[in-house]
Amino acid sequence: MPVHDGHRQRLRARFLKEGLDSFEQVNALELLLFYCIPRKDTNELAHKLLDHFGSFHQVMDATPEELMAVPGIGEGAATFLPLISAACRYYRVSQVKNVCALDTIEKCGDYLVNFFHSRKNETVFLLCLDAKCKVIVCREIGEGSINSASISARKVAEIALGVNASSVILAHNHPSGIALPSGDDVATTRLIARSLYAVGVTLTDHIVVAEDDYVSMAQSGLYHYEDISL
């Protein structure tokens, strides 16, 4: 029996008995690495990853290219670790897929934050609703750098018309961690609202997300649909 098998079995047994909450970061990461690096001591590699990135969540948020810069991390581990965060986001989105109606700003915000879980780049989503505020589709429409993302007013209008939406809500994230709309956010919102108004679709709101927090531009007074329709 390989020397590390006993350690792996003990760590798995501890997880099954106690869950992951009591684990140190290095042990949690070591356990995950078991499933993509067989028959090898992963404790040292877990330490290397934490030394390189600084924390468990920073390791999990790293790109495959960033992970492979750490000696000992191959393609398998560099694919598996980002898959964990992506699977968490997929899980969260699947939990809210069958929501009945998004008829309040709070419901819209709580629905949308799930789509941005663990995203490192600024990403834009378009939430399309029918006349009863039921979700038709929530679609990613743009991704930019960590500080900016471009949104095409024409693309937004085409998607909204293509699914016969009565109203839409824009949402994008600020990976910096501050859900505060910028001047560019406000200007872009008004531009898109006018384009949508011209084709009979209402832009109800633009929601800015940072982690599990969000700011509604309509609720905060930065955007008024009535001003667009004048």
Description:
This protein has helices at 5-18, 25-34, 43-53, 56-61, 64-67, 75-96, 105-112, 153-162, 183-198, 225-229; strands spanning 123-129, 135-143, 167-173, 202-210, 213-216. By secondary structure, the chain is an alpha+beta fold. A 5-stranded mixed beta sheet has the order 2-1-3-4-5, sandwiched between helices. 27% of the residues are buried.
Mean pLDDT: 91
Quaternary structure type:
single chain
Spatial sequence of strands, sheet with the most strands: 2-1-3-4-5
Order of helices and strands: HHHHHHHEEHEHEEH
Largest sheet: 5 strands, mixed
Give the tally of β-strands.
Answer: 5
Number of discrete helical segments = 10
Unreliable runs, pLDDT <50, ≥5 residues? none
Radius of gyration: 22 Å
| Helix vs. strand class | alpha+beta
The share of residues in helices is 40-55%
As a percent range, the share of strand residues is 15-25%
Shape: elongated
Q: Distance N terminus to C terminus?
A: 77 Å
